[in-house]
Amino acid sequence: MKQFSGPVLFLDRSDINTDEIIPARYLTENTREALQPFLLEDIVLEGFNPGTDIHAKSVIITRANFGCGSSREHAPWALETNGIHLVIAESFARIFKQNMFNCGMMAIELPAETLNEIFSTYAGTETHLITQLDKNHFILKNQNHTHTISFSLSGFNLALVVAGGWVEYADINY
Amino acid sequence: MSVKNIPPFERGEVGIFIIRGECPIHDHLLERNNVGRTVAEKIFDTHRVNNPFGDIHVIRLDAVFCHEITTPIAINDLIARGKDRVFSPSKLKVVIDHVSPAKDAKTALQGKILRDWARRHSIPDFFDIGRNGICHALFPEKGFVRPGYTIIMGDSHTCTHGAFGAFAAGVGTTDLEVGILKGVCAFHYPHSIKIIITGSLPEGVYAKDVILSIIGRIGVNGATNKIIEFTGPVVDAMSMEGRMTLCNMAVEAGATCGICYPDRTTVDYLWEFIQNDYGSPDEALDEFLKFLPDEDADYEEILEHDVSVLEPQVTFGYKPDQVTSAQNLSGTPVDQVYIGSCTNGRIEDLRIAARVLRGQRIKDTVRGIVSPATPKIFRQALEEGILQTFMDAGFCVTNPTCGACLGMSNGVLAEGEVCASTTNRNFNGRMGKGAMVHLMSPATAAATALAGHITSWVP
Fold first, then answer.
1. Which of residues 138-177 of B touch A (CB under 8 A)?
2. What pLDDT, in 10s, does the model give residues B414-427?
3. Domains assigned to chain A
4. Can you tell me the ipTM of this complex?
5. Hey, which of A19, B46, B172, B232 would disulfide with B197, CB 3.0 to 4.6 Å?
């Protein structure tokens, strides 16, 4: 099972699309690893610099409809090769979310109100997130605050995270 | 879907947030015993393998479509796992379309991985360079889609094939990989929205304007995780080409699939491929009509969308729901006009554009590029004199390919340049880093090419 804890990258915008996560010009790569330098290269987000702000981050917290657009699994792969296995958002595009779990990664939804409070309390600070999968909660921490945030995971998605992906699961069951 | 009451955030040292359940468990089969079904529900019921978890429906696939961008990594992964097998060679339809012909060593390798795999597994329907076109134009043209079918592809615009009354969904490489190996795919329950398109289309206004106006109305997140059924007199009057344009952009509103109801237009389009299966077109239609929704089918939402006074539509900004009338952007200079793609590269689109262009030359500050979506369309356009019209107008005619639409091969824009395009996405960087894309119909694109700036066509 993958690691779902670590420093948090805040992306304060809705509708971040897959072309922004990994532009189509890099879809000619035949390995996941080759995508690593190009994560979020085309994103339109004031104050964010992909060259310096992604380094050593493990978790993304963002707004609504993350991963809309293309079906490219290169988007989760580009996250994975940068050590980011967990994205927390108000909502996700269907294909992106399924791709995350199919890769044994997590795309977790929280209500807009909760995210508003998380952004106002933690964005712009050095924030660390700890995932406790057995307790279905995250612990968010910065220098001044700590919060415990519960989440839920469907049985299917939990099975994919535990199994490490959909291919092995399907090969046994179908 | 119910959303639990969410208590306000509590400030303090330790706060507890309660969130809504991610996937409420519905016992749909019990719940819906006496309720009518939507198109997608009927298709799921005839294809369901099982429900391994409450809300998850594993369905059997009638076809798995593959192209050279998302399939090679699935192939390599299957090889690495020692599972280099396919569930049914004849149900796999394979094409090289995104970068065609190959532009460099990397894209040549993508083509080679796909080609070697198709040969290794004796896949009969593999369309290599010379016979290839854009998947979502080529596969319908080859008769690979039928009402009631289930189809997946590693391409978000797979929703196009819902125009035939099929359930067709874009998926990622892992879902594609399992589809190739096992012929199944897992989906959440197919909740549907019905959009009734009423009125009649004014002259100079087309399916592209309709779908842009719908996306502008419901937003890029307006149909996420849902199926859109498009119906009403305007859809009934549309050709299969128009319906494919409509369904093609359902995903730009987040939809899993766009669906049009099968009718005589559907049967006539498919007749050459199904004439040995049915005694008459009427008999085929009778069979296909079983996929129409029941009158008491349960929709999450029913929208009426009147297009009687709709004007030609154009996007602005970087999201496909940023839509306005062409009139409002009139005068915006463009550097390039692109006519093609799985949205608007079909023969009907080229005919409309040629009608606008005939006998005129495009502005000398504009680069015009037209890409017929398949070899058949290319040949038809050649025989009908359409390519002549484009060339006389000053257009560059390219071979069938996805090309400029996603800035992968030809027609890439320089920073700061503007393109009027008949494609489906205006995302930042889509056709070139730092460039701007305005989505529009072929008629509006052709008129814009003549003027050198955005303008609508007045027939």
1. 153-156, 158, 170-175, 177
2. 999 999 999 999 99
3. 6-173 (3.20.19.10)
4. 0.92
5. B232
